[in-house]
Give the backbone structure.
Amino acid sequence: MNVIFVGPSLPDVKAFADDTMVIRPPACQGDVAGALEDGATAIGLIDGQFEFVAPVWHKELLFALSRGVPVFGAASMGALRAVECQAYGMVGVGRIFGDYASGRREEDADVALLHGPPELGYPALSVPLVNVDATIEAGIGQAIIDEEEALRLSQAARRLFFKDRTWRRVAEAAEMDVVQVRTLVEKAWTDQKRLDAIELMRAIAKAPLRAPSMDWSFNATPLWRKLFPQLFRI
């Protein structure tokens, strides 16, 4: 059973899932441990909660790896955790992961966005910076905007709080014509988070039966044993 934690990055995830996959909402602390207790044989972390709940605990991911369960991360929270845990065997997938791993990106907020509830399909109410950057890059390649306009848009997007970052607000902050920016989005829109999430779905479908052997030992701290005593019976 491959357990995938996903939400706004890939609302139509079922179109890419096979019968070995169980789709669960964006993960928070305890959800990966719960998936292991349920018998997960691989974990795919795409989206995670972070604002009003405790986010996915690194130690959960390390515990999974210590038990030989492959763990993949991409697109959003998954990309962040993959960078932080790659030394222990977590597999990062996609361009966003690569940007963080190389140091090209550093801010966690680059993947954040405001979205609606799952009942409505996680509709995006703001634009994550990773998608702004990918769209600007595509716009340059298609000669929709020039380098100077691209820089203005990029700097404007970075000045906005992630919940306030819409294309209209970016255009206004960059002092550019809203119609021009709308044309950019219509012709060059690139949803990098979605592309990376799809790549993870394909990667986990080919996941090995066990994670690679490790040269480290999981430290079952008193806090870990207190929070997840049931896992030691797995």
About this structure: Residues 192-205 form the longest helix (14 residues). The mean pLDDT is 93.
